[in-house]
What does this fold into?
Amino acid sequence: MKSKQDIGLFFTIIILSLFFQSCGQPKTNKSKIVYVNSYHRGHPSSDEIMDAIIQKFPTDSFELVTYIMDTKRNSSQDYVEKKSVQLYDSILLVDPDIVIVSDDNAVKYLIQPYFHKTDPAVVFCGVNWSDKDYDLKAVKVTGMLEILPLAEVLLTLKSYYPAMKKLLVLTENTTTTSRKEKLILDSLYHRVGLSVENELVDDFDSWKTHFKEGNKLYDIIYIPTNGAIKGWDRDEARNFLR
It folds into this structure.
């Protein structure tokens, strides 16, 4: 969950970007902002970001246009690439002063390939752990990384459970976030003295099967996210875990 301090910092970045973007340009009645949500309505973390953006920009000063990529529920490479082309064409028609994007897929599939020096400035948030996977040198871009205190949590758990050695990461099977986190975080797990197995699942039944087996074989199970797991039922998952 994003803290009030994080959201405040994010909006400070946006306002500064708008200020510098407007320098030397003729004044207009309203600044145009495009916001692109990588995921979908109903995904809690991106809902918080989208709601904050909609609520914090006053309509008398800003014209806000929002788009949803829906790339958790539709994670195929073909869908994501076609959606990105469509969104880029739509954004060109809006001709915004600044583009705000949340989460990795918008940065990877929309900003990296299509936004270069002649395009509007970009502010991102929700990019997990690092932006080094993306070639953004030719993009006028700034933003915030999403870095969880995962090492601290695991070390705290180890202080209560010193024999903890084997970790199962049970998460959704997505083209960007889950695979990116696996590459980055495996070394983190090893640094805190854990061996790790990653299971990326497509649907709820598979998630339950792997959890049941993992509960027998591992000392700890980490469940990062479930937004792309097909058939996910929150109440049933809670009852199943109990």
In short: The chain has a mean pLDDT of 85. The helical segments are 4-22, 44-56, 77-94, 104-114, 150-160, 177-191, 204-217, 234-241. The beta strands are 31-37, 62-68, 98-102, 121-128, 141-146, 166-172, 195-201, 220-222. The longest strand covers residues 121-128.
